[in-house]
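dumping this here before i forget
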Amino acid sequence: MSEAFTIVAKVLPVIFLIILGHFLSRFSVISQKTVDDLKKLVVNLTLPALLFMAFADTAFEPKYLLIVLAVFASCAVMLLLAGVLRKPLKIDNPYWPSLYAGFETGMMGYSIFVAVYGAAEMYKLAIMDLGQVTFVFFVLVSVLRRVNGETAGAVSLIKSFLKSPVILSIIFGIIAGLIGLPALL
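structure:
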């Protein structure tokens, strides 16, 4: 079997679930409240649990910091580039640049990545995602608050960062890995 076929075979169930979800929603089999509740479950419980396990099992190396910084920088470049291109492309929406400044790993990325590469390799995506998540909480949220006419003080950004279940799971996962907790279990 070719590698491309193997990848498609692994991703296809995820795509079918997305299509099924669309039809269930379209024909009112699942209410919007149910969808919202499922999203809360993913964002506040299942994704943090997955990230905790990924980071707890990761043996950190200094080169990983370079990956985090490179992803953070690429998000910044994309935000700036989209901001510059907004006028020549005649796009009036002030939120448009923010669409290019990050990527969706939480609801989609992890499930597709794990389907293709397996849970044992998830730490690779998690390390990359750390740069993006840090960018979103400290830069993109600040930019979006300014677009909305709000102030974005450093203290409130840090508080929201540290209250995030995703961030807390990453921090505690790293700590668990550093103290050797997975080996004890």
